């Protein structure tokens, strides 16, 4: 199904066009699908992604009738529902997103309905809003659009929980109102065969606080772009990521903090573990500090822990600075195997090699899990890390001491 | 019973120019209840000896033997050595981010004893050990050695010694970098350990200072990868007065 996007575009055209940026990493956007060629894989933004395994999602795969069930809770004061027609159309571009890929342009133009999460101004949502997406048929290629709108000074946590088998392209647009405090967690706990291409675009209001956490364990190919722009000064974005790639998996996370306003902050921490033949992870951390963005602070960090031979972790921080007036900008990127000295230290206290490795991996992720700051999913993340470890590091260990139950 | 016997131990490390011999035939016996001090200049191979006994993968044993109560230590993995009753307090304790001290201690105790400690007494034991070493109970929730000062790291090593209760403790320069108050606290911890039945201690140090608080039964001068001279504690006084020069010129 095709819907026109004229209304969206004309609305956007009335806004002053942002200063043009010369950057091969941030190709110019357009709502018109015809403006985007089918990628070849040589483009900067596609060079790591094994396009063949995307089943045409990046190109012209039919967006079929969804085979992924979508259920949610509705805490008091929140409106959550599937909307279509004019209402859905009006939500396209809610986050300021102007698609820079063919697939995202297609999602905005062609997907008939949107899931709207609407939190009114001044509303503090008492419990996390949890949206469960459970895929039932990996042979169905499909697409989805989620629009989250958080009113000024609202406070909410949204968890998108992906399980089962899907082949899905998803655009998630997030508008964080002035002074709002918003956490969006996306858990990719797919079955082994899932293919998930997603773009999360957030617009952070003046003095607002936005936290985004991308957590990827399952799937054959998972690629997520988590982007942020700022609607006014004083906005702050924390971009967190945790991933665990097994044999044959491709997990790719890209972030883009586009400092479009002065005195804004971005802080990104992505941590990954890899195990098994041809486990491949990619992290690309783009930060752009525009001319207007004086007095900003940015820090981004990616750490990878390689548990076995045969894995590949690509890690590319990319900081582009167009103003000299910044408070602080830094990045760190490291990919390492187990530290012999850490393992030796633990083993010299009687702890077996496998148990020592397990402690180190849990330790590696622990702070990050705490930073996500959603108690109801902390235990689940610890359990999932444990299950991932059981596949390799712990495969010969029979019993495990209780972990994480610090008295 | 606890008897550590080191016989003609030869150890190399891999360097860019091939293996380099660091230990050149070390022979030493520590019987139960005995404290032996090993004193030697920097670079003489003291840490190499400690690490080799504990089984650090960086070091290659090219000759000799180490036994604990007759059991061949060198054929054991690092963790098996610890479970057999060896403990190494390291010169540079390692940071393990994200692993809390209390989780670490409980995991170690469980591994050494082969069963989880009784929760009620264990919490008391841990808090008591930390307190005796002048470490705040809040250390329990901190990551192992991360952000600890040099002195806190050393005191944390001795707290582990008390809790894990090995047969033989090798203390590698536990005294270096400590101010006098911390030195006394550490020495008291070691002395409490020595008071327990049948414990052996191999106290490696660069300075004689700690020997005023921990009185050794034997002193060995360690130079160029082997024991150059052995004697009673009067040897330490002699070293204090004369330094290592005499041994160093002899080794050249
Ligand atoms: N990887 C290495 N390559 C070359 N030499 C080394 C290496 N590791 C240790 N050594 C050498 O081994 C010797 C003994 O070191 P160490 O056991 O630490 O001495 P100590 O503890 O007595 O100061 C030193 O001369 C040191 O330089
Ligand atoms: Mg040393």
**Strand arrangement in the largest pleated sheet of chain B:** 6-9-10-3-11-12
Q: Would you tell me the structural class of the helices and strands of chain B?
A: alpha/beta
Sum up the overall morphology of chain A in one term. globular
> Poorly predicted ranges of chain A (pLDDT <50, ≥5 residues)?
1-18, 396-407
Q: Segments of chain B where pLDDT lies below 50 for 5+ residues?
A: none
Helix content percent band of chain A: 10-25%
Under CATH at level 1, the class of chain B stands as Alpha Beta
Q: What average pLDDT do the residues of chain A reach? A: 90
Average the pLDDT over all residues of chain B and give the rounded result.
95
Number of beta-strand segments of chain A: 16
Distance between the termini of chain B: 40 Å
What is the count of structural domains of chain B? 1
Cα distance spanning the termini of chain A: 56 Å
CATH architecture annotation name of chain B: 3-Layer(aba) Sandwich
Total number of distinct structural domains of chain A: 2
Q: If helices are DSSP runs of H or I spanning 4 or more residues, what is the number of helices of chain B?
A: 8
- Write out the distinct hetero groups bound to the structure: adenosine-5'-diphosphate, magnesium ion
List keywords for this structure.
heterodimer; A: 407 residues; alpha/beta; 2 domains; 16-stranded mixed β-sheet; 6 helices; 16 strands; disordered N terminus; disordered C terminus; B: 252 residues; Rossmann fold; 6-stranded mixed β-sheet; 4-stranded antiparallel β-sheet; 8 helices; 36% helix; globular; binds adenosine-5'-diphosphate; binds magnesium ion; FeS-cluster_ATPase_SufC (chain B); ATP-binding (chain B); ABC_transporter-like_ATP-bd (chain B); nucleotide-binding (chain B)
Gist of the model:
The complex is a heterodimer of chains A (407) and B (252). Chain A has helices at 6-13, 85-91, 102-110, 340-347, 353-372, 375-391; strands spanning 68-72, 79-84, 113-119, 129-150, 155-176, 181-188, 195-204, 209-216, 221-230, 236-245, 250-259, 265-274, 280-289, 297-306, 312-321, 328-337.
